[in-house]
Design brief:
The protein is α+β, with helices and mostly antiparallel strands. Helices cover 34% and strands 17% of the residues. The protein folds into two domains: 175 residues, no CATH class; 42 residues. The longest helix has 47 residues. About 12% of the residues have low confidence. This is Cytoplasmic protein. It comes from Armillaria novae-zelandiae.
């Protein structure tokens, strides 16, 4: 089962989700670059969409929360209000983290999560540490938030019940067929790419026709505006004069 939350912090709204049957575990193993997750979370990682971003409480057990970004959004510049929603949700779903303040939240694109055959069940690392961000949960105040700033760590001192309650009111529980969802997504993306390619081809053809018509028009203009022969300035002879010339 998957829990879906709709965040109205941005326009258009964003989808946040996490596995219902979560099993909390220490995030990091003896290796600092490894993190422990439940088998259910492994399914979410396996089938995560390209625009999904993964959130976790750093060095504490917590749920694994995913943000499905709108198409126009980049993970490096997620608005702070949306980072706050994700951070508050992952904090609220950490038994230990929910009791603590000044936590650090770690987040990275879901496709940056690395799983190799030599790793134990529920163990992952990162393909690229440079694509991992850590945001300290410090001071956050909704009424002083500068919405023009994006891509910076989210700051909160404690659990913000208004945020958590707002998200929980929008919570929907769904049974997800991950493989079928993946197939449907790929079909939709393929159809969109084909439609875009067809539209571009049509536009290119119309542009080519317009250029050809312009070229033909210019050739006609040059034909009718060509300079006359040097003798064309002389008066035209009458039929009588032409006969006399012939004689």
């Amino acid at each position: 089962m998957v829990l879906f939350f709709t965040s109205s912090a941005t326009n258009p709204p964003a989808i946040i989700y996490m596995g219902k049957d979560k099993v909390e575990s220490e995030q990091y193993s003896s290796r600092s670059d490894l993190t422990q997750i439940s088998p259910a979370d492994e399914e979410l990682i396996k089938y995560a969409w390209p625009q999904d971003v993964w959130f976790h409480v750093d060095k504490l057990s917590s749920a694994h929360v995913y943000l499905r970004m709108p198409e126009s959004m980049q993970w490096e510049s997620i608005p702070e209000v949306l980072l706050a929603d994700c951070s508050q949700l992952v904090k609220a779903n950490s038994i230990e983290g929910n009791k603590k303040d000044n936590l650090t939240i770690i987040y990275t694109p879901a496709d940056n999560l690395k799983k190799t055959g030599d790793m134990a069940v529920g163990q992952v690392s990162f393909h690229n540490d440079k694509r991992v961000k850590r945001g300290s949960l410090l001071t956050f105040s909704l009424h002083i938030l500068d919405l023009s700033q994006v891509g910076h760590p989210v700051h909160v001192t404690k659990r913000e019940n208004p945020i958590v309650n707002r998200l929980n009111k929008m919570k929907v529980e769904k049974e997800v067929n991950h493989e079928q969802e993946r197939v449907d997504r790929i079909k939709q993306e393929t159809a969109q790419r084909r439609a875009a390619a067809a539209e571009k081809k049509k536009a290119d053809q119309e542009l080519a026709r317009a250029r050809e018509a312009e070229k033909v028009a210019r050739s006609y203009d040059s034909l009718f505006n060509a300079p006359e022969d040097e003798d064309s300035s002389e008066p035209r002879k009458t039929g009588r004069e032409l006969e006399e010339d012939f004689m």
